[in-house]
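FORM 12-B: Structure-to-Sequence Request
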């Protein structure tokens, strides 16, 4: 008898539970409607729900295109990258809509932000203005590989395209799947600028290959690899490479 009383609900409690469930459905429907109002495609919807993790100041007018949405480095991870970058000139070779470049600039580094897509640079400038750091970034529309021989900097940041959200379908992501050139080529071009390189890679990347990048230099570069999380979900892997001067940059 007593047991029955404990598990049965009074009509009032059951009404309250029904109301709460209905409220949850309404919130979900409202959120879906809101994402549609902002005209995000079904591909992007999942990233839209994470928007404040991408840019905490999203509501102040952040702009992104489709590739920008699924490629931007979440703010928390971009801050981590910036904290580990020393205090010289940072070259963000694949800058996208500015997720990383903004955080580098917030740490008072001088930043060169390159992207081949003029629309990305337009959005990156807009987004940098929201964070008040546009004056600390030189924005360049161009092909990193063409510009590389004329670039000078203390640290190079590489977050190239991974081939879109389908990168996850590959069991082990090898460096030749990076775009627009394979990871070894991208790394070698960067290395001609400085041995201090940070590379943001897919979470399923072949870690053995990442370590092999350091052997492209003689003596081999030091490398440290970390997994990056947002709310306990792993989002990517960062490799920090450094040469003999790394001590001066506050690495290792
Ligand atoms: P994801 O794996 O597509 O999303 O991207 P999520 O939410 O982890 O998906 P889930 O369904 O597995 O939970 C995770 C993060 O990787 C993104 O927020 C970007 O920072 C980064 N990222 C994803 N892509 C496809 C790219 C890319 O092509 N280039 C770069 N530089 N970063 C990317
Ligand atoms: N870290 C960035 C996202 C980078 S996504 C952020 O947080 O916003 C990768 C970017 O590389 C894309 O915007 C793409 O336009 C750019 N890209 C592709 N090929 C390039 C090239 N050859 N030179 C410079 N940028 C290139």
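FORM 12-B RESPONSE
SEQUENCE OUT:
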């Amino acid at each position: 008898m007593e047991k029955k009383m404990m598990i049965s609900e009074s009509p009032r409690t059951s009404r309250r539970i029904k109301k709460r469930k209905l409220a949850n459905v309404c919130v979900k429907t409202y959120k879906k409607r809101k994402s549609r109002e902002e005209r995000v495609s079904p591909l992007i919807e999942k990233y839209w729900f994470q928007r404040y993790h991408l840019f905490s100041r999203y509501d102040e007018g952040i702009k992104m295109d489709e590739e920008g949405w699924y490629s931007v480095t979440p703010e928390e991870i971009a801050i981590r990258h910036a904290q580990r970058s020393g205090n010289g000139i940072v070259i963000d070779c694949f800058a996208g809509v500015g997720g990383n470049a903004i955080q580098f600039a917030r740490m008072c580094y001088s930043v060169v932000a390159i992207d081949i897509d003029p629309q990305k640079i337009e959005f990156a400038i807009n987004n940098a203005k929201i964070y008040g750091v546009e004056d600390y970034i030189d924005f360049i529309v161009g092909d990193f590989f063409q510009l590389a021989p004329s670039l000078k900097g203390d640290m190079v940041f590489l977050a190239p395209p991974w081939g879109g959200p389908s990168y996850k379908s590959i069991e082990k992501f090898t460096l030749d799947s990076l775009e627009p050139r394979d990871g070894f080529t991208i790394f070698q071009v960067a290395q001609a600028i400085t041995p201090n390189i940070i590379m943001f890679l897919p979470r399923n990347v072949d870690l053995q290959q990442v370590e092999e990048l350091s052997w492209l230099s003689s003596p081999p570069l030091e490398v440290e690899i970390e997994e990056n999380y947002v709310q306990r979900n792993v989002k990517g892997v960062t490799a920090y490479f450094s040469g003999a001067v790394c001590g001066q940059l506050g690495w290792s």
